[in-house]
Amino acid sequence: MDPNKCIGCGVCTTKCEFDAIRLHRDLPECSKMVRSKDKFKAILPYMAKREIKILFAKKEK
Q1: Structure letter (DSSP) for residue 36
Q2: CA-to-CA distance for 11 and 24, rounded, in angstroms?
Q3: Which of 13, 26, 42, 47 could form a disulfide with 34 if both were Cys (CB 3.0 to 4.6 A apart)?
Q4: How far is CA 41 from its chain centroid?
Q5: Long-range CB pairs of 2-10, under 8 A, 24+ apart, other chains included
């Protein structure tokens, strides 16, 4: 695992068969945990906002 490429998603912690990988949050107050079944509801507003920004950036070019 390359710590420089880590985005903190936690998938590696579930895939490690030896349970050797743990995530440590430096600023836990800056992040919130979301259940996997509620993940889409949590990221949908950001996805829409980001898509609009991308579309407007393409039109300005």
Answers
A1: G
A2: 14
A3: 42
A4: 13
A5: none
